[in-house]
Automatic annotation (TrEMBL):
The lineage of its organism: Eukaryota, Fungi, Dikarya, Ascomycota, Pezizomycotina. This is Sec23/Sec24 family protein. It comes from Viridothelium virens. GO terms for cellular component: COPII vesicle coat; endoplasmic reticulum exit site; endoplasmic reticulum membrane; Golgi membrane. Component of the coat protein complex II (COPII) which promotes the formation of transport vesicles from the endoplasmic reticulum (ER). The coat has two main functions, the physical deformation of the endoplasmic reticulum membrane into vesicles and the selection of cargo molecules. Residues 741-840 form the Sec23/Sec24 helical domain. It is found in: Cytoplasmic vesicle, COPII-coated vesicle membrane; Endoplasmic reticulum membrane; Golgi apparatus membrane. Residues 1-21, 37-64 have a biased composition (Polar residues). Belongs to the SEC23/SEC24 family. SEC24 subfamily. Residues 645-729 form the Sec23/Sec24 beta-sandwich domain.
Length: 1029
């Protein structure tokens, strides 16, 4: 039945040809428009000048030319046996520099690894492929791939290699990981030496006693190489066994396994028993981002409607139909891949099967060949009648909001979110209404302002202006409007626009100093209790009026002692009660909180409401209106226009032998085992799921996982979004180490640490993170690395950058030592619990680009329409050149750092001819001017690219001029490879880890804590596997 191809053999979509069902598979990052009449391909500068005029000596920079040579060494004409020895450059020179520490390499399933015998499977249980495959095919999740190595790209183009590799694929050295080319210090495991072939990468002992920072694993390089690769290639979700790095844009081709954008497993090959997992020290977990955004070229998630019958489900475990369920008895029964229960197929869903057991209508049913689908559900899945999403804006009009310009910025953001750049005088939503409508047609919006009183507005379209109704008694919240509170934003555009523009003037004469926030939230809950919805609330000062009034809890005396953790949570019963009621009513809250004077806002209490309901807190410490207005406006727009669902429930199911042990994220769970409840959930929210063993897995079968999110869409449809992911099972843990997802492991550990903030001191958590890192690396060194000299630090191939991410975690605002404002620490902790993998990766290690060293073609589209990005540099001041200019982006803020001796020519080309000195620049600038210069267009294009590859925070630049701006301290904090944030440098951190690994191997490892702290840490199984019980 050629109509239903075997996914293990399907190579057509990955040979540079268009996929018929996916006509535009190439990812094209957005490119900023050129100035009028300006040709981007013309000479870089007048009189033929180039970027070299900015720097006299760029030899020490991280130049693109050097990277091209080291990233993609030519491989033509090299036989596979010879490539084993040529996959890495001269590693002997590296280990000579390592001294007593010595860094050796280990290939956990890289290109040079010998073939592993594929475990035998039971009878085929897969709906997506057959077990038997011709030689050279890529076997999906049946133990090991056919090639045996299982490196990140080893089998993606297996059939192409057998016929002669495509040029793009042939750029990758066979013996090296594509994520970390040969120039990194972590070499692959040396293969058996061929006669007459020098063995490159052999560990060498030396006596120099120094570590060269250039040779330790590089996070920028681990991102740049796969980023270049996935500009030209798709990511096939079955044929590939290891996802791309989280910070890398890619186009996924769904083959029945969900895209890594929706789900990421920590181990894509799972040990059969808990003892084997414990030997690795790794957590077994899953990162879910169910409503994540898709890129251009990716197929939208299909929506399937079964009418009143509902989607087919297993009668025993209630799992939804998916590609891994098998059909028997000629199609009359389907066997659940979770619990193996045979279910009867209903007559309306019946279809005959072919001789191999595959339904003949399989390719016509998305739920049988795609990993992520959505089902429309009947009324039995409804908690209340679904309607379009109700948006309610709660606007702080107290004195602080008015005086600091925060109210003006919020009003600008509301209009930007609802109407964008469309003509405000065009009141007719007729033929062009679809272009102007930013929200789904069924959505409705309302506006409420508050200070000591709560003001409701009638926004009906027939009115000449909005009508205000005041609720002055905040002790007993109610809604004085029955009609006109929620309106169609297009139909009532004139009324809404005039009201929002007038709000700053309306309250400028009568300024109330104290906002009554909790009564306002209670009134908003009363307005939304029948339908559910989303609240967007602004706040500029501590709410000290009415019920639920708050006080300054952080007096500075609790920092650094056990009482500090009380500041990280709320003890206010009324706020907790309101948050619980909101979740029950299907209401979520996003807060936009500004501290113009750097004051205390008690984010621990107020943010508890958004955290429990599935919302988010946008925090602006030291808000300054000219500088931060654009960022605030864009983030309000992003919040309103991103995909959002409400009244949401989630359930995660897994195969027999495994069970869910914990969830980590922002949600409500009444009792363990109950469904997770969200007031709202959006495209930027993710959560972590931990699994434990309740038996032993069968290595002949795969392990399956399914997440099901029941929610109401913004246009009023009740749906279930199902994502399915499969992992192979092996007898030991060695195979699992070959398929470790570094980003998923880091995410799980970060979420677990964040959830411990209210239980453990910050010092305990930092120590536990260090011990967990040692456990994982020592477990690998002890059990899987083979024989290496004791003086060498051996890192797993797929965890080379893991230690840097863990160092970044201990240096983050959430966990760093030293004094940190409580609000900022709590904000980052709660944000960390709901971050997606991309945002988390950037948060733990920023991306830094050298502006003064840009090549002439950098920042412009190549001949295929892909933006040519420069290579990023390491987060260390040793990489910062005198006279340089750098973009630093950690997904939360984007700094433009300018050296004190920066070239006047660069300033003129970047900001305009009138700017020849740093002091002439506007310190409150938030975006670059549009100029007809080559450099200006390059940087604007790069910034626009960065804006499309981040989380929920808008990208606006903040100047950090050396010696002039306070943002320079933030720049120094983000150089995570240096000694800062009261933590070690990257090199010292590796030496510290290596010393403790040696002690562990010698059986002499002791914890660094005193006996009292060790007792406090006893609950952290992160000190030893299993993980943080």
């Amino acid at each position: 039945m050629s109509q239903y191809p075997n996914y293990g053999q399907t190579q057509q979509p990955y040979q540079g040809q268009a996929n018929p069902s996916n006509p535009n598979p190439q990812f094209r990052p957005p490119v900023a428009p050129s100035p009028g009449g300006y040709q981007q391909t013309s000479a870089a500068y007048p009189n033929g000048a180039s970027n070299q005029q900015y720097m006299q000596n760029n030899a020490q920079g991280f130049s693109g030319q050097q990277q091209d040579q080291s990233y993609f060494p030519p491989q033509q004409g090299i036989q596979p046996q010879q490539q084993h020895a040529m996959g890495q450059p001269d590693m002997a020179g590296l280990t000579n520099q390592m001294g007593g520490m010595g860094i050796g390499g280990e290939n956990a399933g890289g290109y040079g690894a010998p073939s592993a015998e594929r475990p035998r499977k039971k009878r085929d249980r897969h709906a997506h492929h057959t077990i038997e495959q011709p030689a050279g095919g890529s076997q999906a999740f049946d133990g090991m791939p056919q090639g045996g190595g299982g490196g990140p790209y080893a089998n993606q183009f297996a059939n192409q290699f057998s016929q002669g590799a495509a040029p793009a694929a042939n750029q990758f050295p066979v013996a090296a990981s594509s994520y970390a080319p040969g120039s990194t210090t972590i070499s692959t495991e040396p293969p058996p030496q061929q006669p007459g072939t020098p063995l490159v990468g052999m560990p060498v002992q030396s006596s120099q006693g120094r570590v060269d920072p250039e040779q330790i694993p590089s996070v920028p390089r681990s991102r740049d190489v796969p980023a270049a690769h996935f500009l030209e290639h798709l990511y096939p979700t079955i044929e590939q066994h290891l996802p791309p790095p989280a910070a890398v844009p890619f186009v996924a081709y769904d083959q029945g396994n969900a895209s890594p954008k929706f789900t990421r497993l920590t181990l894509n090959n799972i040990p059969a028993s808990n003892d084997h997992l414990a030997s690795t020290g790794l957590p077994l977990g899953l990162i879910l981002q169910p409503l994540t955004r898709l890129q251009e070229g990716e197929q939208p998630v299909p929506v399937i409607d079964y009418g009143d019958v509902g989607p087919p489900r297993c009668r025993r475990c209630r799992a939804y139909i998916n590609p891994f369920m098998t059909f028997r008895s000629g199609g009359n029964k389907f066997v659940c891949n979770m619990c193996t229960f045979p279910n009867d197929v209903t007559p309306e869903y019946f279809s005959p099967t072919d001789p191999s057991g595959i339904r003949i209508d399989r390719m016509q049913r998305p739920e049988l060949h795609l990993g992520t689908v959505e089902f429309m559900v009947p009324k039995e899945y409804w908690a209340k009648e679904p309607v379009g999403l109700r948006w309610l804006f709660l606007v702080d009009v107290s004195a602080e909001a008015i005086n600091r310009g925060f109210l003006d910025a919020v009003c600008e953001g509301i209009l930007n979110a609802l109407y964008g750049d469309s003509n405000p005088n065009d009141e007719d939503p007729g033929a062009n209404g679809a272009e102007k409508r930013k929200l789904p047609e069924e959505s409705r919006i309302g506006i409420v302002t508050y200070d000591r009183e709560v003001h409701f507005y009638n926004l009906r379209p027939g009115l000449s202006q909005a009508q205000m109704m005041v609720m002055s008694d905040v002790e007993d919240a109610f809604v004085p409007l029955s009609k006109g509170l929620f309106v169609d934003p297009v139909e009532s555009r004139k009324v809404i626009t005039s009201l929002v523009k007038e709000l700053p003037n309306m309250f400028s004469q009568v300024k109330s100093p104290d906002p009554a926030l909790l009564p306002t939230l209670d009134a908003a809950l009363a307005a939304l209790s029948k339908t559910g919805g989303k609240i967007i609330c602004s706040l500029a000062s501590l709410p000290t009026w009415g019920p639920g009034r708050l006080f300054v809890r952080d007096d500075g005396k609790m920092h650094g002692n056990d009482a500090e953790k009380r500041l990280f949570t709320t003890e206010h019963a009324e706020w907790k009660r309101t948050a619980n009621k909101m979740v029950e009513s299907g209401v979520g809250v996003d807060f936009f909180m500004a501290a113009p004077s750097g004051g205390y806002l008690d984010i621990a209490t107020i943010g508890h409401v958004s955290g429990l309901t599935g919302g988010e807190v946008y925090y602006y410490p030291n808000f300054h209106a000219p500088r931060d207005t654009l960022k605030l406006s864009n983030e309000i727009k992003h919040t309103v226009t991103r995909e959002t669902g409400y009244q949401a429930l989630m359930k995660v199911r897994c195969s027999n032998g495994l069970q869910v042990s914990a969830y980590h994220g922002n949600f409500l769970q009444h009792t363990f085992g109950a469904d997770l409840e969200f007031g709202t959930i959006d495209a930027d929210k993710a959560l972590g799921v931990m699994f434990s063993y309740d038996g032993k897995l069968d290595p002949r079968l795969d392990a399956h996982f399914q997440s099901a999110l029941l929610y109401t869409t913004a246009n009023g449809e009740r749906r279930v979004r199902c994502s399915n992911i499969v992992a192979s099972v092996s007898d030991g843990a060695m195979e699992g180490m070959k398929f470790v997802d570094q980003d998923a492991v880091t995410n799980i550990i970060a979420r677990e640490a964040a959830s411990r903030m209210v239980e453990r001191s910050l010092k305990d958590i930092r120590n536990a993170l260090t011990e967990k890192t040692v456990d994982i690396l020592a477990g690998y060194r002890k059990n899987f690395s083979g024989s290496h000299p004791p003086g060498q630090l051996v890192l797993p191939e797929n965890l080379k950058e893991f230690s840097m991410y863990m160092l970044g975690l201990t240096k983050s605002r959430a966990f760093k030592g030293g004094r940190e404002p409580t609000d900022r620490r709590v904000h980052d902790v709660r944000m960390m619990k709901s971050m997606g993998p991309t945002e988390m990766s950037l948060y733990l290690y920023p991306r830094i680009y050298s502006v003064h060293n840009l090549g002439e073609q950098d920042g412009f589209a190549n001949e295929k329409g892909h933006l040519r990005m420069p290579n990023s540099i390491r987060a260390s001041f040793s990489k910062i050149e005198e006279g340089g200019a750098y973009i630093v982006d950690n997904g939360q803020v984007c700094l433009l750092w300018l050296h004190a001796q920066v070239s006047p020519n660069l300033l003129e080309d970047l900001f305009g001819p009138e700017y020849t000195d740093l002091q002439k620049l506007d310190p409150f600038m938030s975006q670059l001017p549009v100029l007809e210069t080559h450099l200006n267009a390059q940087v604007r294009n790069i910034l626009q690219y960065l804006e499309g590859t981040r989380g929920s925070k808008a990208l606006t630049i903040q100047l950090a001029r050396q010696g002039l701006d306070g943002a320079e301290y933030e720049f120094a904090r983000l150089l995570y490879e240096d000694r800062n944030n009261e933590a070690q440098s990257y090199v010292d951190w590796l030496v510290h880890l290596h010393r403790h690994i040696q002690l562990e191997l010698a059986g002499q490892r002791k914890k660094e804590d005193t006996s009292g702290e060790a007792t406090a840490l006893a609950g952290f199984a992160g000190l030893r596997a299993p993980y943080w019980n």
